[in-house]
């Protein structure tokens, strides 16, 4: 399974696309654990008080897993996983 990482998460992991040892039938949480095991520096940025920090968005197929079964959602072939840190909008400078 592949994670797409954005902003500082990609910098921490050393790339925007990271393949992990997870497959259909595993959960999103399993895939996230595999990502954090492979890139332990991400753990401090993503996990807070033992769970995914409120400001980190975990997406499966472009939809936040908070809207579905959360980290317990079962992965299917072809799923796209992504992690987004908070992003702030930019205004036009004056």
Automatic annotation (TrEMBL):
InterPro entries: Beta-grasp_dom_sf, MoaD_arc-typ, Mopterin_synth/thiamin_S_b, SAMP1_3, Sulfur_Carrier/Prot_Modifier, ThiS/MoaD-like. It comes from the Archaea. This is Molybdopterin synthase sulfur carrier subunit.
């Amino acid at each position: 399974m592949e994670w797409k990482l954005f902003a500082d998460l990609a910098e921490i992991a050393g790339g925007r696309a990271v393949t992990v040892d997870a497959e259909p039938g595993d959960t999103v949480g399993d895939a996230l654990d595999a990502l954090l095991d492979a890139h332990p520096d991400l753990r401090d940025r993503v996990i807070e008080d033992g769970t995914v920090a409120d400001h980190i968005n975990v997406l499966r197929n472009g939809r936040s897993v908070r809207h579905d079964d959360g980290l317990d959602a079962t992965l299917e072939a072809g799923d796209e996983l992504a992690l987004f840190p908070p992003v702030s909008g930019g205004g036009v400078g004056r």
